[in-house]
């Protein structure tokens, strides 16, 4: 039942993805967390360009552990997305359509997703060793001083994700729980 | 009187930081696997399968289970007949953390100021909890604490009239508010009694206690069972995608308290509930 999808996350592709879909994602994604998002949004506010092309891009909210010798990257599971809520609408406004993380999003983020055809994917929180296996290359793009929070370009193959919120605003966190409670008669 | 070099404590802490981050305790694995056997939803089962596969990879490859390798919470039970020699104990603990997080390729997640931020670069300082106990040993427990779940924790100072129902409602309310954020399935530590700060410490100790143990008082042991069932009836499920397994364990710790109060703290941990202990 898993859908195989290949990036970039165009508007057409985004519209085919529905909350609750299990996907295996392949392509280039960028890593960023709180500190990186803050810098990027400050750069945009000054009228500067981002260190990567945001058009149809997907951002993974992750701060990996350092790579051991011979590893592409260390453990690399998602961080709590809510901390990026203040920045996500701005990022979507310049074309960064995909987000990978875990945890709830604010209504204003969901509104922006509907406006820009954004998609919020969930990676399994706490499965950092497993997720690292799907990352085939990692290179530093900017903000090296932020350490684990630096902006990196990753190439991932068959990264296992679940669509949590789709471009119509459907939310698996609401429907998944409601379906379970309905089925179990609560 | 037994003399122990603090450098010995450094060595143990270095090792425990790496072990705790790479190898999940057996009681936690057993609880996850028990819950997997009871799940029936497709997404919920898939998530739990991935969680199990993840800790197997971490075991086999000796890599961190989760990229949030946490703040190093270090519990020291120091025998009162021990004389620590050769340096400052706090420095020795931090040196162990510094080495462990460096040699173990663990993430450095500590900032030097809570408001002005700025990474310390070596995951120090550790959060150190010392207790003087009878005997001539030093028992060291490391519990690396991730903050996705720590952020979902809560403390409340109840009036005694709130009674048991107040505590039950608070547990449900806190888990409900946490929703998908702390990476469910979670472990819930509940501390009841003491003072404002002691209640929080009890809650933290509760998440360190093995999941196959119960509070010694049957009243609270029954409450652990009852509240775990109630939490799992919420339907939040693995990762918040819906399902039976919202929590894999709920431990309660208690202390006597003041006639005017009933402090209660709830510390939330994710399924990567890490702790390793060694006795010197």
Question: What do these coordinates show?
Answer:
The complex is a heterodimer of chains A (about 190) and B (about 280). Chain A has about 190 residues and is of the alpha/beta class. In chain A, about 25% of the residues lie in helices and about 25% in strands. Chain A contains 6 helices and 7 strands; from the N terminus they run βαβαβαβαβαββα. Chain A has helices spanning about 10-15, 35-45, 90-95, 105-115, 130, 170-185; strands at about 5, 20-30, 60, 100, 120, 135-140, 150-165. In chain A, strands 2-3-4-5-7 form a 5-stranded mixed beta barrel. Chain A starts with a strand and ends with a helix. The longest helix of chain B is centred in the first third of the chain and has 20 residues, at about 40-60. In chain B, strands 4-2-5-10 form a 4-stranded mixed sheet. A 4-stranded mixed sheet of chain B has the order 6-9-7-8. Chain B has 2 domains: about 1-20 and about 65-145, no CATH class; about 150-275, no CATH class. Chain B starts with a strand and ends with a strand. Chain B is built from 8 helices and 10 strands. The radius of gyration of chain B is 19 Å and the shape is globular. Chain B is α/β, with parallel strands linked by helices. The interface between A and B is large, with 49 and 49 residues.
| CATH class wording of chain A | Alpha Beta
CATH architecture annotation name of chain A: Alpha-Beta Barrel
Order of helices and strands of chain A: EHEHEHEHEHEEH
Given helix and strand content, the structural type of chain B is alpha/beta
The mean pLDDT of chain A is 95
Helicity level of chain B: 40-55%
Distance between the ends of chain B: 14 Å
Count of individual helical segments of chain A: 6
Distance between the termini of chain A: 28 Å
**Overall radius of gyration of chain A:** 16 Å
Widest sheet, order of strands of chain B: 4-2-5-10
Count the E strands of chain B.
10
Strand order of the largest sheet of chain A: 2-3-4-5-7
The assembly state of the depicted protein chains is heterodimer
The biggest beta sheet of chain B is recorded as: 4 strands, mixed
Secondary-structure-derived class of chain A? alpha/beta
């Amino acid at each position: 039942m898993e859908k195989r999808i290949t990036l970039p996350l165009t508007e057409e592709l985004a519209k085919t993805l529905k909350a609750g879909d299990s996907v295996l994602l392949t392509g280039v994604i960028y890593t960023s967390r709180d500190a990186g998002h803050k810098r990027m949004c400050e750069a945009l506010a000054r009228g500067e360009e981002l260190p990567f092309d945001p058009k149809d891009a997907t951002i993974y909210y992750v701060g990996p552990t350092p790579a051991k010798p011979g590893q592409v990257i260390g453990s690399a599971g998602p961080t709590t997305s809510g901390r990026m809520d203040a920045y996500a609408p701005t990022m979507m406004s310049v074309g960064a359509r995909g987000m990978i993380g875990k945890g709830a999003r604010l209504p204003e983020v969901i509104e922006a997703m509907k406006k820009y055809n954004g998609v919020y994917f969930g990676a399994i929180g706490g499965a950092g060793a497993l997720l690292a296996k799907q990352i085939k290359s990692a290179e530093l793009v900017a903000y090296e001083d932020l350490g684990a929070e630096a902006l990196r370009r990753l190439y991932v193959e068959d990264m296992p994700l679940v669509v949590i919120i789709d471009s119509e605003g459907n939310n698996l966190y609401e429907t998944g729980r409601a379906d379970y409670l309905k089925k179990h008669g609560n | 009187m037994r003399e122990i070099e603090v450098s010995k404590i450094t060595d143990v802490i270095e090792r425990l930081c790496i072990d705790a981050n790479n190898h999940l305790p057996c009681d936690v694995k057993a609880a996850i696997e028990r819950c997997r056997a009871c799940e029936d939803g497709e997404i919920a089962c898939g998530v739990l399968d991935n969680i199990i596969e993840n800790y197997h990879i971490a075991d086999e490859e000796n890599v961190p289970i989760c990229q949030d390798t946490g703040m190093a919470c270090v519990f020291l039970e120091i025998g009162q007949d021990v004389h620590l020699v050769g340096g400052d104990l706090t420095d020795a603990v931090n040196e162990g953390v510094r080495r462990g997080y460096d040699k173990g390729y663990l993430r450095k997640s500590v900032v030097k100021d809570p408001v002005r931020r700025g990474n310390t670069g070596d995951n120090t300082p550790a959060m150190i909890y010392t207790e003087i106990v009878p005997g001539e040993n030093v028992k060291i427990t490391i519990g690396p604490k991730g903050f996705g779940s720590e952020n979902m924790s809560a403390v409340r100072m109840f009036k005694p009239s709130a009674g048991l129902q107040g505590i039950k409602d608070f547990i449900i309310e806190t888990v409900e508010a946490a929703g998908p954020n702390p990476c469910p399935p979670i472990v819930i530590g509940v501390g009841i009694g003491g003072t404002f700060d002691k209640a929080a410490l009890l809650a933290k100790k509760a998440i360190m206690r093995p999941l196959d143990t119960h509070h010694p008082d049957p009243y609270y042991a029954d409450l652990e069972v009852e509240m775990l069932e109630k939490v799992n009836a919420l339907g939040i499920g693995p990762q918040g995608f819906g399902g039976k397994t919202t929590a894999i364990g709920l431990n309660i710790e208690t202390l006597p308290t003041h006639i005017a109060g009933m402090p209660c703290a709830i510390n939330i941990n994710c399924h990567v509930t890490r702790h390793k202990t060694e006795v010197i």
